[in-house]
Each structure stands twice: as C-alpha cells, then as structure tokens.
Amino acid sequence: MIRVELVKLVRRPRTWGSILLLCALPTLVAVFIAVTHVAPAPGQGPALLSAVLSDGSLYPAAALALVLPIFLPIAVAIMAGDGIAGEATSGMLRYLLARPVGRTRLLVAKLISVIAYVLGAVVLVAVTAYATGAGLFGTRPVLVTSRGLAASALATSLSGTPMTAADIAMRTLGAVAFIGVSMLGVAAVALFLSTLTDSSLGAALGALAALITSGVLVALNSAASVSPYLPTRYWLAWADFFREPILWRNIDRGFAIQGVYVAVFLAAAWANFATKDVTS
Amino acid sequence: MIVTRGLTKRFGSVLAVDHVDLDVRAGDRYGFLGPNGSGKTTVIRMLLGLVFATSGEIEVLGKPVPARLREVLPRVGALVEGPSAYGHLSGRANLALIDAAGRAGGRRTRRCRIDQALEHVGLAGIDGRPVRKYSLGMRQRLGLAAALLRAPTLLVLDEPANGLDPQGIREIRDLLAGLNQAGTTVFLSSHQLAEVEQLCTRVGVVDRGRLVLQQELSALRPATGRVIIRSPDADRAAAELNGRIASRDGDRLVVAGADPAELNARLVAAGLRITEIRPERRSLEDLVLQLTSPGADRIDRDPDQPGGDRPLSTGGAQ
Question: Helix H segments across chain B?
C-alpha cells in the first residue's frame, strides 16, 4: 500500500506543480539579487539573504527561509489535507477499504507519502537553490580549500566566524531536517482534519488557520505563557544552525514540540479514522 | 454467503436500517430492491465494513464482519454507489493501483488479471486516455472490471446497470449470469425491476429500513389463475368463452381459467385466430410498488409529523 501511495504521489500533476512553485520563488529572488547586486542589509529581510552575495552556497538555507513562512506550509497542508478527504471526495476511499486496505494501513501509507512529499519538497528547494546560488553568486571551489587556501573558501556566518564548505553543508542539512520536521507537525494536523471531513480544502484551510492562530499568539506578548507550546514558536530556530557556536536550545525544543504535535494528532487521526463510518 | 441477524444502523436520530435479516445463499442471484433512501446502500456498506452496525450480526462468506474483514474482503468484488476512479490516470493505471492496494494477488500476474477483467466488461481495447474523459457507461464498466479483478466468490453490486445503454445492460446481464454459472454468488441492488426479473433468482425488498420480503422469485410470481389472450377475432372469442371473460381491452382478453392449453385448443377448434395466449402473472413491479412506500427523495407536506424516525440512506443514492 505504501508503494501504491508513493506511485500516486509521483504520478500526480499537483505534486510537481507545487514543488515547481516552491522552487521558483527562491530562483526569482536570486535573479533579482544577482542582477542588482543589492542584498538586504544584515539583520533585515529574510535570514541569511544578506550573506549570499559573498557565498552562493549559503543560498539553499536562505531559500528555505523564503518559502518557510507561507509557501511551504500551504503546500504541505494541501497535500496532507488531501490525504483521506481527497480519497473520500473522489469516491476511492470506499473501494480502497473494500479491497481491503486496513484503515490503519491506509493512514500510515498516507503519512509516509506526505513525509516523502515534505522531504522531497524541502530537499528539491535546497538543491535548486544551491544550483542557482552557485551559478549566480559563485562558490569558493572545494579544490582551493584542499590546497589549504582557507581564506578564499570561507563564508561569513551570522556571528562573524569563518565557515568551511563542509561546515555549510552540514549546517544546511541540519536546517533541512529541522524544517522538514516542523512541516511534519503541519502535516499531522492536516491529516487529522482530513479524517474528520470529506473536503480536502476544508482540512487544508483548517490546518492553515491553526498555524495562523499560532503565529498570532506567538507574536502576542500577553500570550507569552502559552507560546512555548505553540507549533510555530520554534519554526525559525533553524537559523540557529548558522550561528557559532550552534544554539541548540531552541532547536532541541523545536524538535521536541513538533514531536509532540505529530504524535498527538496522528493518534487522534487514527482513533477517528479507525472507527469512522465511511459514507462517502 | 451473506447472513445478517437483526442488523440495525442508526445515524444520530435517524434509523436507517431496522432489524434486517438477510439470507443470501451460495449460488444465488439475489436482487436487493427498495425505493431510494430505504437503506439498501447502508446495508451494502455494512456488509463491506465501511459503516459499522449499531447492533446486529453480519456474516459474509461464513465469517463475522467486521471482525474478520481481512479474510472476507479479498474474496468479495464490490461496486458501491457508482464507480470511482482517479480522473487523471488511464483505466489500466487505475486498475493497477486498485489491484496493488490490499494484499492478495502477485505483481507478476497483475497485467493478466487486468486484461481479463477488461475483457469481461467489454473494455479490452481501451487506450491511455485518462478516466475523466470516459463516458458514464465506460466508467461503469471500469468499476465492474475493478470488482472482477480478483475473480471474487461473491459480487456485491450497487446499481450495476447504471448509465449503461440497453445493449450494455444486456451485456452486463449476460456477464453476471455467466459468472453466476461459474460459481459466483451475485448480490445486486437495482431500480430496474425488469432487469432484476430477468436476472435474479431471489429477491429481498426493503422499505424504510425494514426487510419486508425475501423470497424465491419464482414463488413470488405464481399464476393468477387467469389467462391473457390476444386475438384479432376477439369478439367471437368473447362470445365463445361467454361467462369466463374477466375483462376486455380491444383485442386483449383476460379469461378465468388456469390452463392456456385447454383454452387454446378450444378457440382454435372454433376456427379462431390466436396471436398470443399466456397465463397471467403479477409483475415484480406491481409487487414491489405494493410493498414499498414512496422513496425518501420524495418530500410530501406532512403537517402532523415533522421529522421523526424517517429512514435515510447514507449519502443518498442520487
């Protein structure tokens, strides 16, 4: 069943359309910056964007920062919200269950397909961003580093300490993983809503509404007491991978809170779906 | 094959299925009849484990449902409330996905199974067009092909003739009769009573969630003890059979008497021309209309009882 879900994911035009859009935005921004050579001043605009002119290999991280606030959550909410509700709308849910595909099994397959989508999307954004970044802004060739010409291979981290190319790669990988897990939290909420309703749009919008609410409360000082438990509270903590030393405190908390959200909402999704009358 | 005892389903305050005791035996061609909203589809969904019963027991293929659905369903082919498919994929790709979902059936023989199912339903030559470009009849055939993929022991079909033209209906009827002869039990719901009359050996009729009748079709339609005669010489025939004529309409006579052969010999001996002579039987349509109330899709004004325990189908067979 997992294989079937992955095949469906890959053969679906929507998958590639959304990933294309996700990759297009950073590319567009990169072209503007490369043409004008005007990057936002450090501390302004999206994180890291100010540093990319000096080293294009930082661009994947900057690109993730660009798609993280809106594009990526929307894409993930739509894909996950479509999980069960989409099958219900198309009328295939009853045929899958009568095949039979166990309900738990179907839910797990949907979850894995959503995970594949999230990771695929984040990695593809990073890869295209690396290509555009390297192409438009140039990177210091690895060869130079191996000859020991450290100065030319160094980029400036946010705290002003030198970073090697391998260092950048590791930090970017960490950021990709963190953002991937953050998006899994979104996916779990959307998948849960997807088992509640037969409307995939409703499930996606519900998940986005939850995120927006969370975003508003995080920014609200009077809601400070609940803010550590909100799903979007630590979303931006991935930027801490680009500090020297890496600030693990918020990153760890971010992983933990997403883990809790994923566990709770998946359990709720399972409890609801396994006992639900399928009348679509 | 299918046994239910006291099967009941309540959706909130709505009683959709009320103590239904189905008994479908191996080899039956069972017609499941009833007006829209009488609970047919809900019963079918419960048989397939899609909807959970409020109370009562279900046994399909001798095993309790939903407890042992995983053993039961691989041997059941189903068409529930119209066919479904992924519109952006071709018919073959759809069948491949449906076949790969669930466990039974190896990957190597999949192509063969799909070809066979398509052949069965008359879609052997379909190309790579996406299903969203299919006509209603093609979708219906594709849905049937999906139900036939694993050579099921039991076919549960909700309105299998929906959207088909008369020729298609006949093809499907022949197909189902053929499969039945080869050992498949067929359980189908339909509004097309003439179809059911031609295909089924046994019928069950539901009305407002209750099973009001379940019997062999042959037992349901005994001769009425009257004979229908058509003759261009109707006047003379009426005179000849004076006293036995029950009613007359042009050249059509309804005559009291159980034996058409005797009547025929007598009329022919009198030199009369007979174009048709047969025992009168009640049609299934008369029977079903007599047993059931108007469907839930008919909403009459009812000032005394707003709401109440009116049965409702799930999703409604529109």
Answer: 40-47, 69-72, 91-100, 110-120, 136-148, 166-181, 193-199, 217-220, 234-240, 260-269, 284-291
CA dist B58 and A3 (Å) reads 32
**Whether the model pTM is above 0.80:** yes
**B84·A4 Cβ contact <8 A:** no
Chain B residues with at least one Cβ partner in A under 8 Å: 11, 45, 48-52, 69-70, 73-74, 76, 78, 80-89, 93, 97-98, 100-102, 146, 314-315
Task: Please give chain B's pLDDT, 318 residues, in tens.
Answer: 899 999 999 999 999 999 999 999 999 999 999 888 889 999 999 999 999 999 999 999 999 988 999 899 999 999 998 899 999 999 999 999 999 887 766 788 888 999 999 998 989 988 889 999 999 889 999 999 999 988 899 999 998 888 889 898 998 899 999 999 999 999 999 888 888 888 999 999 999 899 998 988 888 877 778 888 898 888 888 888 877 888 888 888 888 887 888 888 888 888 888 888 888 888 888 888 888 877 767 777 766 655 444 555 444 443
Judged by a CB distance cut-off of 8 A, whether residue A8 touches chain B is: yes
Q: What are phi and psi of B154, to 5 degrees?
A: -130, 130
Of A7, A100, A275, the CB nearest to B102: A100
| H helical segments located in A138-227 | 142-146, 150-153, 165-196, 200-219
Go through chain B and tell me how many residues it has. 318
Task: List CB contacts of A235: < 8 A, sequence separation 6 or more.
Answer: A68, A182, A254
Chain A residues in contact with B102 by the CB 8 A cut-off are 1, 96, 99-101
CA atoms within 13 A on the CB side of A268: 15
* Residue A12 in contact with partner chain B when CB distance is under 8 A: yes
